[in-house]
Amino acid sequence: MNVNARFLTNRIAQQCAYKRIVTFSTKPTEQSAAAAVPQQQQQQQHDAVAPPVRKPIVPAHYRFVYPEFLPDPKVEWRNSIREKLERLDMLNRRRQIELPEFYVGSILAVTSSDPHAAGKTSRFVGICIHRERCGLRARFILRNVIDHQGIEIVYELYDPTIQKVEVLRLEKRLDDSLFYLRDALPEFSTFDEHMEAETLEEGTPVPINELKVVLRPRPWLERWERQNLRGVANIDQYLKDKHRKSSEKVQKPWEKYDLMKQYRATIPEEEQKEIFAEVHTELHTLELQRKRNKRKRTFVKPKHLA
Amino acid sequence: MLRTVICDLARLRLSGSTASSAAVVVTQVREKGHLSRPRLRNPYWFIRPQRSQTDDLVTGENRSFIKEVIHDTYGVPALIKGVQTYEQRQLIKTPQASATEDAQPWTPNVRRCGLIARKIGQYPLWLKNGERVRTTLLQVVDNHVVKYIPPEEYRPAQQPDVKHLHRYGCLVVGAESTNPALLTKEYCGLFKDSGVMPTKNLARFIVSPQAALAPGTPLNVGHFRVGDFVDVRGKTVDHGFQGVVKRHGFKGMPASHGVTKTHRRPGNIGGGGEKGRVWPGTKMPGHMGNRWRIIKGLRIWRVNTKYNVMWVQGSSVPGSTNGLVYIYDTILPLRRPQLAPPFPTLYDNDAEEQLPEDIWHEQVHNFNEESITYKPE
């Protein structure tokens, strides 16, 4: 009986593993990546048996490219009409301005209107260290070191004062938020203001920069040793036994098995499909338009030499 | 109670004694003889709406017959303005004609009807100067006038806080039509005269006789204009019994440095000597939330007529998301409308169709417009 029950729960866990996908992580979890392969095989078998059913084709990567289109998963705050109106507003804004795909770890340049700046616009280049919130409230933090002074600016993605968002280098880092750059040596968050945009070939997956950051000695802003950071090189050098012990105490290794927690923290895949099916065509046409414009921009008419 | 019985008995004996002898003895009753407890008489529409769910042993055929009858009388289920309701074709269209005939002009002191809405969430809008405003979205959910009680007949047992109440009538408005088979007979009877489908929610609005509406009139978000100010009434989120830190924002005491057992306690609650007692109104732990509150003077920034939604300034509208709220014209003297609002309401046929789907305040940045730029001086 006991064995049977365990077997059953295992089965359920396996089934659930590829139904629920973490929305906010930029990298697909190992489980879902492993599960994606057999699913495709199953689909192929299925196709061979029955005639293929036409479905709206929403690319699977949309939940990582457009995470802010997924609403807050807290049930008490959800309302379908509010979400629909919010999505319409977001699409309207996206028709006016190109909001490119970017991730935590990408290097961006944001040009925004500023009543106090000379020329009434300001441009800020920096690394995206955090991305949060959904809908029209979506925002991200850019960090750079200018004149030996660390500067961070919080931008709201749908703020109409933003004139232009350029991705200078599209890449991911090893962690989902890079707040530890605040306690790292300044060269790790220093980026050239006049950096040129690096182009990625179309269709290539977003590269993951495996750079490990060197931390400064204590005191730190947060207890980084408790956060299982992968992108930090020298954290062990600053830890004493008491830090190791206390960080062990607060670890919650069982949380990755907590299906209910994961369920509450994410939007179920069926709903994600519904949402993206609604906005997919619009987003796709915008993407195509952007590509066309880019091609136009890259083609430079040779100058007539006198 | 006992005292009154005793008094009555004494009086009986007195009357008996007066018959025998002419001497009159008057027993003095110093008290009123009963407790002066106000009698709680609720409005007549406070009836239990939900029928107790018993297994009626109705056959499938009969069940479908009941459904058919409901659809015949009230129309088929339909999605109207984003709300799941019924196509109510039975509502007579004459009230608008009669209303336009003897319509009286709007005056600044007139009280209009309000609306029943649901708070559906909050998100920011931006003004044209780049400023960000937090807004709350209120959706008007399928409102219909159920009854009008003229001033002569309106005698509420519990007096609302309205000056010169005798001059005003009362409008009963229902929101969110529902299947009458789930409701009690008495509750359904409230809607019988108006012909409106029974609704889940009812509210009363105190209105001037000029602003009276005929039963069956649908109320939409066009009742208010963009730029108007409204008061929103709702029941705040229930927090239960809370301590002083959460309830009144006390600071509490330090977590360490030798502090024991008093981290979130209020500390001293009164002085000694002549004031040696706890003064009335002292902030103490207790029940928090679940109270009716009105937030006044909120500007309407934007209106969507397709889904009956209005964007209202601020994010502190009482109640939880998806909770019911009531919207009124503001009572703040400096924010009352200067120009005539739709009076007594915006009727479906005259202007509703002409309204655009999205109406923006002139100061608000429309997401369809280009990015905001500032002109160099």
From TrEMBL, chain A:
Location within or outside the cell: Mitochondrion
One GO CC annotation: mitochondrial large ribosomal subunit
Superkingdom assignment: Eukaryota
Keywords (A to Z) from UniProt: Mitochondrion, Ribonucleoprotein, Ribosomal protein, Transit peptide
GO BP term (any one): translation
GO molecular-function terms, A-Z: structural constituent of ribosome
InterPro entries membership: Ribosomal_bL19, Ribosomal_bL19_sf, Translation_prot_SH3-like_sf
Family: Belongs to the bacterial ribosomal protein bL19 family.
Protein name in UniProt: Large ribosomal subunit protein bL19m
Species whose genome carries this gene: Drosophila albomicans
TrEMBL record, chain B:
InterPro entries referenced in this protein's UniProt entry, alphabetically: Ribosomal_uL3, Ribosomal_uL3_bac/org-type, Transl_B-barrel_sf
UniProt keyword terms in alphabetical order: Ribonucleoprotein, Ribosomal protein
GO cellular component, one term: mitochondrial large ribosomal subunit
Gene responsible for this protein: LOC117577692
Keyword Transport attached: no
PANTHER family: 50S RIBOSOMAL PROTEIN L3, LARGE RIBOSOMAL SUBUNIT PROTEIN UL3M
GO function terms (MF aspect): structural constituent of ribosome
GO process terms (BP): translation
Domain of life: Eukaryota
Family classification: Belongs to the universal ribosomal protein uL3 family.
Keyword hit for Ribonucleoprotein: yes
Region called Disordered, residue ranges: 252-283
Pfam families: Ribosomal_L3
Name of this protein: Large ribosomal subunit protein uL3m
Organism for this UniProt entry: Drosophila albomicans (Fruit fly)
